[in-house]
Write a structure and sequence with these properties.
Order of helices and strands of chain A: EEEEEEEEEEEE
Oligomer: heterodimer
Number of strands of chain B: 11
Strand content of chain B: over 45%
Helix content of chain B: under 10%
Largest sheet of chain A: 6 strands, mixed
Shape of chain B: globular
Radius of gyration of chain A: 14 Å
Strand content of chain A: over 45%
Largest interface: A-B, 31 and 33 residues
Number of helices of chain A: 0
Distance between the termini of chain A: 38 Å
Helix content of chain A: under 10%
Distance between the termini of chain B: 33 Å
Number of helices of chain B: 0
Structural class of chain B: mainly beta
Shape of chain A: globular
Order of helices and strands of chain B: EEEEEEEEEEE
Structural class of chain A: mainly beta
Largest sheet of chain B: 7 strands, mixed
Number of strands of chain A: 12
Chain lengths: 116, 119
């Protein structure tokens, strides 16, 4: 079974609108961390935001916020006021359980296209 | 200067050739990782190393080997390259988790990637 599921292969949004990128995860470990990374067409991986499983509040970083619903095992990324430069692939990732090491498990990504 | 560097950035090679991808970091992190990204897929873990003497296989280690020459250097080798190893390869580094374990904030820092094409 997929540990990280991103069900939206592609999303389209107009400039200045908000957009939500979905991510659900599967783990039985009570201790885990959830990450979002942005990958522009140039290929590099850019860290956006992090949510720990014990964090009481949803994470926010500038225009990025994470809608963390623990009971539903979802960690959706919300981008407010989209910009043309937000066009990229977005990956949700999880780190879980000490025995699995601390490598990240990635979803397949969502391509976001922002138009003017 | 970049904290995590990868060489080469692009490489085209032929089936059966041995090739080494190198990764260096100046972040002082103990933990280093090699990931592979295929088109339309997320990153998959090839190998990871928690320190110079600790190397572990990831989910797709077949056909690859690694060497942790120093805390700052982690190399990935393809002993006999094949076309389905054509992919974008990323090196990453991180600190060990804090006392809260995997739930603690612990960003992975990625290198710029190496685009490898095996003909």
């Amino acid at each position: 079974a997929q540990k990280i599921t991103q069900t939206q292969p592609g999303m389209f949004v107009q400039e200045k609108e908000a957009v939500t990128l979905d991510c659900t995860y599967d783990t039985s470990d009570p201790s885990y961390g959830l990450f979002w990374y942005k990958q522009p067409s140039s290929g590099e991986m850019i860290f956006l935001i992090y949510q720990g499983s014990y964090d009481q509040q949803n994470a926010t970083e500038g225009r990025y916020s994470l809608n963390f619903q623990k009971a539903r095992k979802s960690a959706n990324l919300v981008i407010s006021a989209s910009q043309l430069g937000d066009s990229a692939m977005y990956f949700c990732a999880m780190r879980e359980g000490a025995q699995a090491g601390t490598a990240l498990i990635f979803g397949k990504g969502t391509t976001l296209s922002v138009s003017s | 200067d970049a904290d995590v560097t990868q060489t080469p950035r692009n490489r085209i090679t032929k089936t059966g050739k041995r090739i080494m991808l190198e990764c260096s970091q100046t972040k002082g992190h103990d933990r280093m990782y090699w990931y592979r990204q295929d088109p339309g897929l997320g990153l998959q873990l090839i190998y990871y190393s928690f320190d110079v003497k600790d190397i572990n296989k990831g989910e797709i280690s077949d056909g690859y080997s690694v060497s942790r020459q120093a805390q700052a250097k982690f190399s990935l080798s393809l002993e006999s390259a094949i076309p389905n190893q054509t992919a974008l390869y990323f090196c990453a580094t991180s600190d060990a988790p804090g006392l809260a374990g995997p739930s603690s904030y612990n960003e992975q820092f990625f290198g710029p990637g190496t685009r490898l094409t095996v003909l």
